[in-house]
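cache lookup: miss for this entity combination. No prior model stored, computing from scratch. Input as submitted by user K.M.:
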Amino acid sequence: MFDIRPVETDYVRHRAAQFRDQVVRRLDGSLTEDEFRPLRLMNGVYLQLHAYMLRVAIPYGTIRPDQMRVLADLAQDYDKGYGHWTTRQNIQFNWPKLVEIPDMLDRLAEVGMHAIQTSGNTIRNVTTDAFAGAAADEVTDPRPYAELLRSWSTDHAEFQFLPRKFKIAISGGAKDRAIVASHDIGLRLIRRDGQTGFEVWVGGGLGRTPLLGQVIRDFLPEEELLPYIEAIIATYNLSGRRDNKYKARVKITVAERGLDVFRAETEEEFARRRQAFLGADREALAIFRDRFAAPAFRTAPVAGYEAQRQANPAFRSWTDTNVKAHKVDGYASAIVTFKAPGQTPGDASAGQMRLLADLAERFGHADLRVMHDQNVALPHVHKSDLPDLYLALRQAGLATANAGLTSDIIACPGMDYCTLATARSIPIAEEIADHFRAAGLENEIGNLNIRISGCINACGHHHLGHIGILGLDRAGVENYQITLGGDAYDIPAIGQRAGAGFPAEEVVPAIDRLLRAYLELREDETERFIDAYRRLGPVPFKAALYPETADA
Amino acid sequence: MSKAFTPSAARPGVITANDLREGHNVWMSDAGWSPDPAQATLYEDEAIAELALLKAIGQSDRVVGPYLVEARRGPNGPEPVHFREAFRQTGPSNYVHGIQARKSEANHV
């Protein structure tokens, strides 16, 4: 298991004490709001629509049970009993009082957690495959590299004032589950001629200018990771635009200057920088590899699991959708979706967090992963324990068998919480989920990624949804644009706008027409919505969304 | 965000902000900052409103980010015009939290 070194805990405590002092100085008038704002943002404190919001970092989504219990305590003692999993594998608390946030940071520091670099123009939380160290298709475990990037980028003096925020994702699977192509830097672990290395992507991102990244290096030997990443970010730090916030991300730098120019500058920088790396990164990586050593997997019969699958259709259904292949015989990874009927996507109560902590200790080698799709995974569960795990989850209302299905919707907080939002996301997500559950179509439709954002900044990843929904303000009324054909995983793609937006009450009927058309159009039940869309193109799907236009 | 809004008799406005210490939404009333939007002072005169906004900005030891925003005269005080302000005056739609929770508690007393 990952173990925080004492020195880092000291650093985190130091930063918490600093913030406590900054809050005192803001309250006594020594600091103006203009002076205080960047300081609070450096500690993950935003001011949102109804209250402050604290975003806590969960490095690459990996969290221990004792840390999860502290999150539960914070939800109970300083919030309204819940927190919200984010698409950067972090957690947000929606209702903290500014005067209590220093206490929250102290509680977090006790378990080595913090809110540093969850905001601001810095290198943000490094994300990875939620099944890292467990997935059957893994080249190698990406977490030691993710931790190397995290520890290197934390408080990195050169990169505290980048032109804009900077997001890195790293994926170790043959299948990309970390959305490498839509990050400022995306890293895919690959093996070539017996050597482990990275395929390095740069310049991807969503927001108002959605772009897929491009491969800047098709093979980077793994020992060159830090100097090369440092060279990319140093190049961007100098050439990225600071005159216009909307053109400041590296995706614009690469698009405007061209990949070849950006690559040449990066390689030149790399040649200089690699001289300065004298091996400390290699030593750190060796330590991190030990920290992420595999747990003591056990050997036990799995006949009971198979028998339960045969005997209990509800359990079988849950294992079909929420259980994934593990690299160790007899083991599986289990997904706990936070998308139950009536539940806000990604919201977890204090009680649910504590239950996850308990279950991870009982059945999951004390390991939990916050997933970018706002669910939580237990990466290592022996199959013989799955029936008991399922039962415990079901009793708590956490055994919804919908991972990857219509109701497993990613939704940003939208205008229910966010001060940047132009429309609400959560009610649309709930209405779509309720509608297709009631219609009994969810299993028939099969794998479908619906992604909803309440503004153009795209925290809900709408561009990557097979069906994306973007909430906008049209003349003082909420209005929703639909995009089609996005894909985060198999063949990364940015969804294309289907046509005019819909008022809130027409979104569910429109999605209903769309999916019923898909069921008519598909070749057979193995052809997913996105596959049918790729085969047929947008025309028949647009016709379903806009029947009047099609008739005319 | 309509921070550049200028009120007039035809389109009056209120001044709103967030409480510095706790973060909740507050409105400028005749008696100072209030958590109750119905208590908000309705400004119909541009000059008076701008002066009040300057005063509000000067109270940065109490509030964060004060701004003028359109409101309409209602039977029980000013009412929101834009849906964003309507949400600020109630709370999120997924839980009974925020101002709607205080109102619902008050109704049960």
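stored under new cache key. Chain B has a mean pLDDT of 93.
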